[in-house]
Amino acid sequence: MARRKVVAGNWKMNMTPSEAKALVETLKPLVESNDVDVIYCVPAIDIVPVVEAVKGTKVEVGAENMYIEEKGAFTGEISPNMLTDAGCKYVIIGHSERRQYFKEDDAFLNKKVLKAFEHGLVPILCCGETLEQREAGVTLDWINLQIKSDLQGVTKEQAASMIIAYEPIWAIGTGKTATSEQAQEVCCAIRKTVAGIFDTDTAEKIRIQYGGSVNAKTAPELFSMPDIDGGLVGGAALKPDFGQIVNYRN
Ligand code: PGA
Question: Which numeric CATH code is attached to 5-246?
Answer without folding.
Answer: 3.20.20.70
